Amino acid sequence: MKLEKKVLAKDAEVASARTAPNYARGVKREFTVHLKGTEPIMVTRRVTVGSKVGLHARPATAIAEAASHFSEEILIELVNPADPDNEPADAASSLMLMALGAEFGDEVSVTSSNATAVERIAELISVELDD
């Protein structure tokens, strides 16, 4: 049985000691904490792609490089209500990120058992990386 609980960032410390504070720059962010028995807690955050070229060459490479610094698996999935069965991509693979086909303004979800990794990768996705 999978149990999901939506929490606001300000409540994250109460919900789980394993979630990172999410009040960076005073922005309230909502994320989902997945609780599955004794498995690690999975944190998911939705973010809008900020690069004008989408998750293409330079942005995908920058994200993959940042993801490779974390030992936990980080998954990125294109949020598409018309196709809820999208396959997630490994954030440490620039080729898999480009294969998502995420364009500027698209919404993606970032999931990992490491809340710090989720925040770092979500932050990179949300900014212009193709300068």
Verbal overview:
The protein has about 130 residues and is α+β, with helices and mostly antiparallel strands. The protein has one domain: 2-Layer Sandwich (Histidine-containing Protein, Chain: A). The protein contains 4 helices and 6 strands, in the order βαββαββαβα. A 6-stranded antiparallel β-sheet has the order 1-2-3-6-4-5, with helices on one face. A hairpin with a 6-residue loop joins β2 (about 30-35) and β3 (about 40-50). It is globular, with a radius of gyration of 14 Å. Mean pLDDT is about 80; it is low at about 1-30.
Mean pLDDT: 79
CATH superfamily: HPr-like
Can you tell me the residue ranges where pLDDT is under 50 for at least 5 consecutive residues?
1-28
Pattern of helices and strands: EHEEHEEHEH
Rg calculated over all Cα atoms = 14 Å
Principal-axes shape call: globular
Strand order of the largest sheet: 1-2-3-6-4-5
Compact overview of the structure:
It is found in: Cytoplasm. The chain contains 4 helices and 6 strands. With 131 residues, it is an alpha+beta fold.
